[in-house]
Amino acid sequence: MPPMNDQHTLSPIGLATVLLGAFLAIADVFIVNVALPTIDADLHPSAATLQLVVAGYAVPYALMLVLGGRLGDLFGRRRLFMAGVASFTTFSLLCGLAPTAAVLIVFRAAQGASAALMVPQVLATIQSATHGQERARAIGMYGATAGIAAVVGQVAGGLIVDANIGGADWRPIFLVNVPVGIVALALAWRSVPSTRSAEPARIDTLGTVLLGVAVLALLLPLTEGRALGWPVWSWVLLAIVLPAVAAFVAVERRLESAGRHPLVPPTLLRHRGMRAGLAIAMLFFGGFAAFLFVAAIAFQVGAGLSPLGSGLALAPMAVSFLAASLVSAALTARLGRDVIAVGAVLQAIGLVALGATLWSDWPNVDALTLALPMVVAGFGQGLMLSPLFGFVLAGVPAHRAGVGSGILTTTAQSAQAIGVGTLGSLFLSFSAASSLGMRDAFVIVLTLQISMALVVIAATRGLPDPAAARAEAKDAEARDAEMELVEAA
């Protein structure tokens, strides 16, 4: 028998529930950005320790995403989603109560690991419990959720920190997750279908270890190296990355050739949409995360805005991102892959206008003066991100939904960490230089992000037509079924 998923359907409430879980996990990557100055003033950590408040969440999150997807395929996606929500909610509470920076970092790491169990089940459930246009719309809504959560995370973070609820300063940014998590957990039990792969695969232990080494060796130096002055160990870890990746690829190829179940099946990466889509995702998420990180610092430290003012400066971007997400499905049906190119053009135009505004008005900027560039850039980003997930996953067979979503979310999360680690470090270095200031450093980062948007325009030519990708996925399922029959005989 070929691998099949339970033939359950995903109701609107079920879709809203899994998207709520994704929103929580993604927003928590960014909600801390605007609270870092307040956490610094309250707990007095070193610069490297403060950086770990962010990286302590991001690194375990990226490390475990592919494994989380495989565990969902193996043990059931609703079960892993609920386990992830429950532990994420618990550690959010503990983060909010943390007495020291070191304790906060430990609970942030556990929170990130919990998110890695939860998030891959969202796309995997959508892939396995929806079909046709319903699936396309649901995946588009996931893309919209991912982008909006990133911006709303910073807006909400600024609002919560400025409100100083009960004199608790930054702590409510974590505590607010608790009631939301409890609601998501209750809804998941009743509304999320129980799906899993009918062909449980053993965990690829060696592949999991090698992938973890590669991701850790890349992300830890990029997130901590600058704050610590680039010590020797950071360069040693970076030198390990390529050998670890090469060993991982060799192991995965050997396992798949032997008819076993690698953590990341090489044949999955041969899908045209997967390859081109992951490249675009790296560029988009790397630039997007770096922009939000830089904006949070520049608006508060350079322009003197409050945490709330910093968040409100990004609010027009969130609104236009949502508007673009609502029309992206119709535009994708009409324009196909060109909708992403159109979005990249609009994003570039918005960022050019934003750079010009910063150059002329700095430091006298606020939500009003930045509104138009933010609206244009946000609309372009919404047109890019919402359809992208659909293009990437269209060619993934249903029984590999967990693995495919794990690969995509790992790419996105790793790109975010790389973007902050590289462009964020570049911004901090330039802004501290005597010949440059925060405005100039911000404009340099915007220029690099504009260049990345132009590369995305070219990369969209590598994306397949969604219908052709779906046909490719069906062919892959048929080949898997044929192999199962041969093995059974």
Helix-strand layout with pairing:
Elements (H helix, E strand, L loop, with lengths): L11 H19 L5 H8 L3 H29 L1 H21 L3 H29 L2 H32 L8 H4 L1 H15 L13 H20 L7 H26 L14 H31 L4 H29 L2 H24 L9 H23 L7 H32 L5 H22 L6 H23 L1
Helix pairs in contact: 1-5, 1-6, 1-8, 3-4, 3-5, 3-9, 3-15, 4-5, 4-8, 5-6, 5-15, 6-12, 6-14, 9-10, 9-15, 11-12, 11-14, 11-15, 11-16, 12-14, 13-14, 13-16, 15-16
Description:
With 489 residues, the protein is mainly alpha-helical. The protein has 2 domains: 12-195 and 263-488, Growth Hormone, Chain: A, CATH 1.20.1250; 204-252. It is 79% helix and 0% strand. The protein is built from 17 helices and no strands. It has helices at 12-30, 36-43, 47-75, 77-97, 101-129, 132-163, 172-175, 177-191, 205-224, 232-257, 272-302, 307-335, 338-361, 371-393, 401-432, 438-459, 466-488. Helix 3 runs antiparallel to helix 15. The N and C termini lie close together (12 Å). Mean pLDDT is 85; it is low at 1-7 and 483-489.
Molecular shape:
globular
Q: What oligomeric state is this?
A: single chain
CATH architecture of the largest domain: Up-down Bundle
Strand fraction: under 5%
Output the CATH homologous superfamily of the largest domain: MFS general substrate transporter like domains
- Count up the domains: 2
The H-and-E topology, N to C, reads as HHHHHHHHHHHHHHHHH
Tell me, what is the CATH class of the largest domain? Mainly Alpha
Instruction: Indicate the CATH topology of the largest domain.
Output: Growth Hormone, Chain: A
Mean pLDDT: 85
As a percent range, the share of helical residues equals over 70%
What's the N-to-C terminus distance? Answer: 12 Å
What is Rg? 22 Å
